[in-house]
Amino acid sequence: MRTLPGVTDERTARLAWARLAEPLDSVATALIDSFGFLGALDIVRRGGVGPSGKVVDRFTARLDTLSIERDAEILDRLGARVLVPGEPEWPTALDDLEVPPWALWVRGPLEVTDLADRSVAIVGARASTAYGNHVSAEIAAGTAARGFTVVSGAAFGIDAAAHRAALAVEASTVAVLAGGVDRPYPSAHSELLREIARAGAVISEVPPGSAPTRSRFLARNRLIAALATGTVVIEAGLRSGARHTLNAAVRLGRPVAAVPGPVTSMVSAGCHQAIREQLAVLVTDAAEVIDLLGQIGTEDLAPAKRGPTRVEDDLDPVTRQVWGTLAPFRSKSVEEVTVQAGLSAGEVLGALGELQGRGLAELRLDGWGRA
């Protein structure tokens, strides 16, 4: 029978499970749901039988290399910390997930306790366009300047544009990784992740040293959706990680927004579909995102968008109708205006007097025209 040095309570058992099993592993989840973290670990250690009646041997290979003490030493060298549910800094928004992470590794000074109170997840295509990168940066900078923490996945494209924009306005940003907090991915973003770790936080549900894999990326997406107040998708294909994050946010009941792109662009097809299916609200700038995610009855309300103001906007219908018949460079008689406007001579004369008083019309030697 194997011994597990360092595993003494539920906290250390959670750390052990994060090392033994993949996030969302169905066998591990069933064991833990039935027997608790320590009990489930004991069954694995003894080679016992799980809830299905089968011997649990899935985790044997990793059990042989498990070392809680070694992981603690690595954590100290990184200057990182590990959180579990119930601790003061644990982000309780993660408890809304069907399968919350067993633990969370955090690198950086930002406390992640209340991220869901005022934060925005900005996700999108890796192979983004210049338009998508511009919109991502504008929304990230605009929301960050209003006190929102920007949450994303540090990937190429939309994610990177959002992180960099938040850093540019000296705001908080959080990168949620699919690998360990010491495994920058993509490697080209090593410096970006160092900047995020200096000013915000780099987060992962897998222990240091863990490599990013496809299944871990998919599991990571649910954390991005859960940590933030709401999610904004900028450029996403019909089948994409960003669309997966959007769906996770919808399942959680979080507000979801999508930025439209050209109707011919396949990189925006997932956004258009989400808007059409009423899974996401159409947004075009930071003000509209803040309106969606901010507090009701505060300055978070977006200003109404209006077209350009025209001089005739404040005119009554009859005066506006007469104004429409006048020309700037050609004079017209009252009779001509009467015919063209379809009004009586009295109505036309009254309207012309009103327009003249406003400085919009003038009486010339040969008739009336716009001033």
UniProtKB/TrEMBL annotation:
Superkingdom of the source species: Bacteria
SUPFAM superfamilies the UniProt entry points to: MCP/YpsA-like (SSF102405)
InterPro entries: DprA (IPR003488), DrpA_SLOG (IPR057666)
A family per Pfam: DNA_processg_A
Family: Belongs to the DprA/Smf family.
GO annotation terms (biological process): DNA-mediated transformation
Domain (Smf/DprA SLOG) ranges: 82-292
Protein name (database record): DNA-protecting protein DprA
